[in-house]
Amino acid sequence: MSGGGTRPLRICVDARLTHGTSGGLEQVVIGLAAGLSGLTDGDEEYLFLLGPDGGEWLRPYLGRNCRAIAAPQPSAMGPRARLAAAIPWAARVYGAAHDVVVGPSVSLSDGRAEACGADVVHLTHQEGFVTRIPSIYHPHDLQHVHLPQFFTRRQRRRRDVLFRTLAARASLVAVGSSWVKGDVERHLGVPGDKVAVIPLAPVIGHYPRPAAEAIDRVRAKLDLPGQFALYPAQTWPHKNHVRLLDALALLRDAGGAEIPLVASGHLNVFHAEIAAHARRLGLQRVRFVGFVSPEELRALYALARCVVIPSLFEAGSFPLWEAFDSGVPAACSTVTSLPRQAGDAAVLFDPRDTQAMASAIRRVWEDEALRASLVARGRARLAHFSWDRTARLFRAHYRRIAGRQLSEHDQALLAEAPLM
């Protein structure tokens, strides 16, 4: 029980995301909803702020202790929000001009968190908003500091202002790994005792498990090859699809058969360049299937021979957790927090070295004994991580921040050394 209060502790969770375009952020919110919904040993209430799309993607994961708070009607929005809803391109022009003249600004709360009597606001993604209510903020990663070439000057400036403002105002800054914690302390100037490492976990286990006939339907619908390597990632430049294609071409040109690649995830503006590169290389067995449903994602893992994660920057990799959870061997990049996340359960490679990437893919593709060993190690590695544990750790912080009584289990969780 939360204890020490006259009513249940109310946590407002920021779930204002657009379905299908938010990548891992959507999975964070789904995992958190599923984890908090399973906490039946407390009297907390979890209030999820939905975006304009209505949040149908999230509702199946909300339990009896959760409530969805719909987006305000356009008439209740400010002028900029109404402009964005009516004419998105005009809102972008307005925003760019505003940033030049006035400087980047941070959104204010739309009033829903305050109106529902929240004791703590959990800002689950970088955008966040300013509120007087004590908050937990997730900057997730500072990619713009390390890979500035993938951001415009305006984007870098805005991210810097946004991250610094919301981190400074937060009662707690939550990150997924010790690597990101150090980055936040160095580059945002946040004191170490204000940054908590709270590892995330795979969400895929909360998705419906497809039956054999459903898997067959997905294979036919997506026109999948008999065996393939899988890379689930939106087509951002830092996801490194281009070098992955180079590595596959190296393997083919070395005399082997072309390894089929299936890449899922939202196809953003950079996809055209990736597709053109595949054509230049003459790769014939590359399939970009776009954003897929939860059932389709589980089917892809069930059918994949291996997973490849060549990213140049990650706060943590959901595809790596999903590979472990699905019993699929993985080859993974050595950047940022990924080596610690992988442990000994993946073949690691330098993502800027296409020859090293090609060798890692070949090993996982061809060595049956290695694949079996990686699957076993992945399952053992994943045994330490779950959304139940993550939700309990967040609940302990909610109670602490709100000044509520902590249970012995809360205190033990807060005292543990980070797992990541």
Can you tag this structure with a few keywords?
420 residues; alpha/beta; seven-stranded parallel sheet; 13 strands; globular
Could you describe the 3D structure shown?
With 420 residues, this protein is α/β, with parallel strands linked by helices. 43% of the residues lie in helices and 13% in strands. The chain has 17 helices and 13 strands. The strands form two sheets. A seven-stranded parallel β-sheet has the order 3-2-1-4-5-6-7, with helices on both faces. Strands 10-9-8-11-12-13 form a six-stranded parallel β-sheet, sandwiched between helices. Helix 1 packs across helix 16, helix 2 crosses helix 3 and helix 12 crosses helix 15. The longest helix is centred in the middle third of the chain and has 17 residues. The protein is globular. The two termini are 28 Å apart.
Note the topology.
Layout: E1 10-15, H1 24-37, E2 45-50, E3 66-69, H2 79-86, H3 88-101, H4 112-115, E4 120-123, E5 135-137, H5 143-146, H6 153-169, E6 172-175, H7 178-188, E7 195-197, H8 212-222, E8 229-232, H9 241-253, E9 261-264, H10 271-281, E10 286-290, H11 294-303, E11 306-309, H12 318-326, E12 330-333, H13 338-342, E13 347-349, H14 354-366, H15 368-382, H16 387-401, H17 408-415
Parallel strand pairs: 1-2, 1-4, 2-3, 4-5, 5-6, 6-7, 8-9, 8-11, 9-10, 11-12, 12-13
Helix pairs in contact: 1-16, 2-3, 8-11, 9-10, 9-14, 12-15, 16-17
Structure summary:
The chain is an alpha/beta fold. 43% of the residues lie in helices and 13% in strands.
